[in-house]
Amino acid sequence: MPVKYVSHDLETLTLTITAEFAAPVQRIWDLYADPRQLEKVWGPPSHPATFVAHRLEVGAKTTYYMTSPEGEKYHGYWVLTQIDEPNGFEFEDGFADAEFNPNTNMPVSKNVYRFESIASGTRATYISTYATQEALEQVLAMGVVEGATSAINQIDDFISH
């Protein structure tokens, strides 16, 4: 399994996931840069993603939705804040309505994704920071750890084909 470490810290308001992939950094970057590849691994296997708009450029807004087994759609968005190709990127991630307007009743996280070369391929570190302890606790209760872990664990199989 690619995911090696998961922790959350209510003092620093962070959720950190570390994973290792049997592929070079550029391949992992390419996966995140291409919406058709990304939708194969974003979201847990039970909730496949569809990316409507996606460009890894500072200021760009990514929009997507995940579809439940019952056909319910859960919309989200990213606003890209920093790009360091191929070493990573930063973005704000939020929940949205069906028109991709931010859902202000749900938490927004600031995310830092970093990719570094290691002997076996790539180590990816995913850090999400929330504005309040309540926001972090809310997404933890919603299953963000399980969902993110199962999504990330799909990457090795996808890139090996």
TrEMBL record:
Domain Activator of Hsp90 ATPase homologue 1/2-like C-terminal as annotated: residue spans: 23-157
Domain of life: Bacteria
Pfam families to which the protein is assigned, alphabetical: AHSA1 (PF08327)
InterPro entries reported in the protein's UniProt record: ASHA1/2-like_C (IPR013538), START-like_dom_sf (IPR023393)
Entry's family note: Belongs to the AHA1 family.
Name of the protein this chain belongs to: SRPBCC domain-containing protein
